[in-house]
Amino acid sequence: MTRRILDHPILGKMEDNNYVSFTFNQKGYKGLENESLAAALLANGIRTLRHHEESGSPRGIYCNIGHCYECRVSVDGQQGIRACLTPVKEGMTVESDGQLPSSKRR
Amino acid sequence: MDNAIIIGAGPAGLTAAVTCAEKGLDVVVIDEYMRAGGRLLGQLYEEPNGNWWNGIKESNKLYEKAVDLGVNFHLNTAVNNIENSNGIWTIYTERETFHTPSLLLATGAAEAPVPVPGWTLPGVMSVGAAQVMTNVHRVKPGERGVIIGVNVLSAAIAMELQLAGVEVASLTLPKTNQVTQDAGKPKEVLDSLLHVSHMAPSPFVRYGSKLMKNDFMKKLGVNFFPKKGVKMWDIPIQLRKAVTKIYGEDEVEGVTLATINADGEVVSGSEEHIPVDFVCIAGGLYPLAELAAVAGCPFYLVEELGGYVPLHNERMESPLEGLYVAGNITGIEGAKVAAAQGRTAGLSMAHHAGMDDLDGEIKNSIKRTEQTRDNAHIQFHPEIETGRKKILQQWDAYQSNKERSVVSNSRGGIT
């Protein structure tokens, strides 16, 4: 079942249909070209974008407009990129970052 | 060097850009989002005349007008720092560095977070996030959700979600704690909701607003407020319930909802589990003003405007030479007011660039902003006009202090 709102009573039918391929944690997905990475992943049913560096707890989008940095992922090898502000491009490689080693954690 | 630079491509920034360009200025607009429009993009509501206000259409109209006038857009570009040296503002972004004598900050607003146990679980998002997903990206935030926080913004977005086929199981309160304070007290929330009640199709809420003129009646109103809640646009609004916890293993699976008394205290043993796959948190908006702080602009706390706002006058000038502000950075109001302020700011910037004979236009634009405010369909704060007066009083006080210190400094220089 799709999570996309293809037909909206006021906004009408969705016109975009130029899908591109990208990977998230080595798995292939399709997204609409230039939609946000956060939207493309959610449309594919993916909510967990990363695990917290310290606690390892799962995290997803929160503000969706770039203020909170909760959706940070690695894009084409670059860390700390906000998924909500990043347009999806063909061949993009996206990875979620996870818990970091710590000498203090038990 | 550009004649004018505008940070923020929302209704205020876009209108300012169009105004400056019409006056012949070279204009650059910078925004970190991938599309122009800002928070206007997500807006979708029916106006009293029956027409739909479609934020995407309104944004595109403004954006295309600006592009036609030759405005240079740098979208997907975050500003990291601004500084002034010898009357020239330098704007540092992730990509390039810009310079201008006239800089407008139209950075808009951010949503105040409301911490609720379990709120870091994937599937919990701000209510604005759900709005952008639904109306702009056309992706459902989930199938069934709960909105925590009852205010003007969350009520409007609940309706938008429902319009898109997303079920809103309940619009309810957060459990009171030190952070949520008034947002978790039924009486305070009812108080603020009375100001949107004219929009409510529910006779209970409409009738109720006339009844509850004084504090005693309001308290009575909450006490008699049905535990099941009332329905606005078919969505249950539950002021006698509060979410005590959001639960789920790896993502949201549901919320724990408890009955609360009129002061917001949980009635023990009343907890129930409501299965949902997403939760929206609605803490209200506050002015996003970091860049004004970085620039060294004085700030004042004005509750009616939504928080700390940079000092400014009706011409949208800050006390710093060549620095202007417009839109929600100056106080939380609707997109139409923001656009009206943007026009005033654009005219002030053209004046600063050396254009004469703009005083009449600026005065008219200020008047038009006031008219727009008076006619606003939704008021984010009922005392917005008081807030506007307060900041103008601060401006006058600041200016007369400055004059006094200039006088005493010059006297000091003589002796």
Which properties best describe this structure?
heterodimer; A: 106 residues; mainly beta; Ubiquitin-like (UB roll); two-stranded antiparallel sheet; 1 helix; 31% strand; B: 415 residues; alpha/beta; FAD/NAD(P)-binding domain; eight-stranded mixed sheet; five-stranded parallel sheet; 22 strands; globular
CATH topology of chain A: Ubiquitin-like (UB roll)
CA gyration radius of chain B, whole angstroms = 23 Å
Instruction: Please give the CATH class of chain A.
Output: Alpha Beta
What would you call the structural class of chain A? mainly beta
Q: Give the tally of structural domains of chain B.
A: 2
Which value, in Å, is the CA radius of gyration of chain A?
15 Å
Overview of the molecule:
The complex is a heterodimer of chains A (106) and B (415). Chain A has a single domain (17-95), classed as Ubiquitin-like (UB roll). Chain A is 7% helix and 31% strand. Chain A has one helix spanning 37-43, and strands spanning 7-8, 12-13, 19-24, 27-32, 50-51, 58-59, 72-75, 78-82, 92-95. In chain A, the strands form 3 sheets. A 5-stranded mixed sheet of chain A has the order 4-3-9-7-8, with helices on one face. In chain A, strands 1-2 form a two-stranded antiparallel sheet. In chain A, strands 5-6 form a two-stranded antiparallel sheet. The radius of gyration of chain A is 15 Å and the shape is elongated. The mean pLDDT of chain A is 93. With 415 residues, chain B is of the alpha/beta class. Chain B has helices at 11-22, 55-68, 127-136, 152-163, 186-193, 203-211, 215-224, 290-295, 335-352, 359-374, 384-414, and strands spanning 4-7, 27-30, 44-46, 52-54, 72-74, 79-85, 88-93, 97-100, 103-105, 109-111, 124-126, 144-148, 167-174, 230-232, 235-247, 254-259, 272-275, 278-281, 285-287, 299-302, 307-310, 323-325. In chain B, strands 11, 12, 13, 14, 15, 16, 17 and 18 form an 8-stranded mixed sheet that branches. Chains A and B meet through helix 1 and strand 6 of A and strand 11 and helix 3 of B.
